[in-house]
Amino acid sequence: MSSKFEASLLSVAELQAIDPTSAEALVVPAYQRAFCWTDKQIEVLVQDLVTHFTRYSEDETCRYSLGTIVCHQREKLEVLDGQQRLTSIDVLLAVLGRREADTEQNPEFSVTEEEFRKWDPTLIREYANLTLEEGKDIRGPNISEKILSSVCHKINEAVRERLIFSNEEGISPIEKFIDCIRKSVCVLRVILPIDDRNAYEGPAMFEIVNMRGQALRSIDIAKATLVEKLKFATDAERLAFDRLWTGVAGLLRTTPQTEAKGILEAMHKELATKTEASEPDDRGGGLKFNAIVANARHALKTKLTQIAESEEDDSSDEKRFVVDFENLFVIANEIFRWTKVKDADEAKYETLNIRPRPGETEYRGLHERIVVGKDLNVDDDKLDQERHKDVWRFMSVLWIAAIVARQVNDLKNRDSTTKKPFELLIDTFYAANGYQYSGQYWLLSLVHTAVNEIYPDTDRLPETVEAFVSEYRSTKNLSDQVNKSFKRGYLCLLLWGLKRFNWPNEQGSMTERVINVGKDEGVDKLKNSVIDEFKVIEKCHESDAEFEAWRYPENGVRWKLFFTDWLLWVDSGSRFLYLESQLHEHSGLFKDFLEIEGSKNDPLKAFREDFESKVYGKDQPDKMRIVSRSQIEHWIAQDTADLVGRDELHHFGNLALINTSENISNGNKSTSDKSAPRQLGSNPTAKLLWLSIFAKAGATDQERLFDSLCTADMTKFWADYIGSFAKYDWPTS
Fold first, then answer.
1. Which residues lie below 8 Å from residue 205, measured CB to CB, with a gap of 6+?
2. Helix crossing, 173-184 with 145-160: angle to 10°?
3. What is residue 103's three-state secondary structure?
4. In whole angstroms, how far apart are CA 418 and each of 421, 425, 429, 610, 627?
5. In this predicted model, what pLDDT tens digit does every residue of 335-353 receive, in sequence order?
6. Interatomic CA distance for residues 512 and 515, integer angstroms
7. Does residue 474 contact residue 256 with C-beta atoms inside 8 Å?
8. Nearest 5 degrees, angle CA 26-CA 30-CA 34?
9. What's the whole-model pTM score?
């Protein structure tokens, strides 16, 4: 334990003068989050310093405070709070130094990310939290082009407008500004008396003190909660845990920052040098985790109840990774709960919602749901050891979940024209559920299947860090095992989609329902279950109550439209043979309505070919798509003259999904106007495209279109079309 509280006021120059090998040298420990300030935050800092320079030029005794830098004394001073500010000052000084060294004194001086890659920090001497790629011969964190551009712009602007200047002969404005920063910018360095005989207290303290800077996230407290349970961990184990944690975060990027193999090698390297861990010390005087974290948890819960989910545009959904760390953590947590209670009659699963809905009072934060260390059924004297094991069991589930998410993201990002039905189904679920607090139950299904396939006996989950590293380093390719699990995973996901279609109002925990879908069923039995659900759709018109569920705005209609679009995508692979079959099956519904020139012999075939040409036409081979964040469109608008208030407008036949912005622009236009290609948008959904062809092929008379489109018979056509896929030979890859 650090023996006492220490506080010292130090200038930037004094921090730079500290011997990098001494105990006073500042380092960023591995458990810290990475440098994450944005160009906007650094821009504000630079502007503040430019303003301060004016005062400093008049009175060199004035000071600019960077605030408190909180440290923990170990071999060197570990920075718990202040990394962002110190790194930003260092970046600014490095850029200024390069500009001063520029012999041409370019007024539009700039530095590229590549040129800045191997910069030398002078304040923080070691960043143990660098990603594996950053850590190769790199001393400081990677600084983005956007940040460098912003810093250079502010410096160039300040020089041009003489906001920084020099009245001393032989000293340039840049040199004077550097001198101002080094001598007058100060920090209050505080060393806290933290009990370092418990490895978890340093990371825990980091999570808490950072509440005053970057907002503390649920995932940060979740991490600290897990670290709390590693009471007997050596420093090597703690660092290996941090390598794994930051590695998982790195995998969950559109462009991954690392690879699974590299993460395991980094963990193995940390374990190569072991240090002893002391017994937990319960004596007073130290800053204990439970006392520290209680207020932080309460503050976070209060903060979360005030957060309203912000909607992103379609493009952001398409570019972002399929899941973030918080969502993946809660998915892994529920699957880990399943490994503990899967044989219990009444398992109490949690929702996947990670944000409270507006007005929701009964909400449990992420850290409150954690099942690690619970329901262990061991004597008290063995409880800490079992909690320790539980952490590594859980991390195995989280690790598999991350590999699943990585592969799913790669499948999702394939070219849409070559996607297989499984990949299109992933697109469909992602588009329907998005990235919001409603939860990603489709991913829960795939992760659960993978864990169940890889560890049919969950008692085999690794229980130590050594077992974890050995298990996954010796496994030839965990990714191959995950990919193999998609054989059952695809069928389980399809079965879940069908159950959502048929039973949208089923009571009970959705998490439990997903986990129990296809439970203990092999591939052949799963296929039969899928076929049975399609047959339910075929027969749904036999029950008036079930058929009513196909109308707007009944619960589940939006998913029915998404699922229908997906089947049209699947059918497009066989040139819409299933669609053509149902057109002939329901010929009485279509023949009298369709008026396609030159199609008197077979108007149904002509209609199908017209629809097909819009999908495969030379100018638009990929026009049909699965639309994220779409709204339900009434093809014949609800306020159409002479039809206002007609309940039939809500029939399934008159509904389709449409991009939100295109829905606004279409407004309440006539169906003939909507059928114009420019009105459908650049990528119409499948059923929307079908409606446009149907309206165009029929007539401009909206009342006649209404009599054909807005009927129970048209809904039956769609039910029979969807149900006909009971005959489809569903592949398992």
1. 70, 72, 80, 192, 194, 287, 292
2. 110
3. coil
4. 10, 13, 18, 22, 17
5. 999 998 876 556 788 888 7
6. 5
7. no
8. 85
9. 0.72
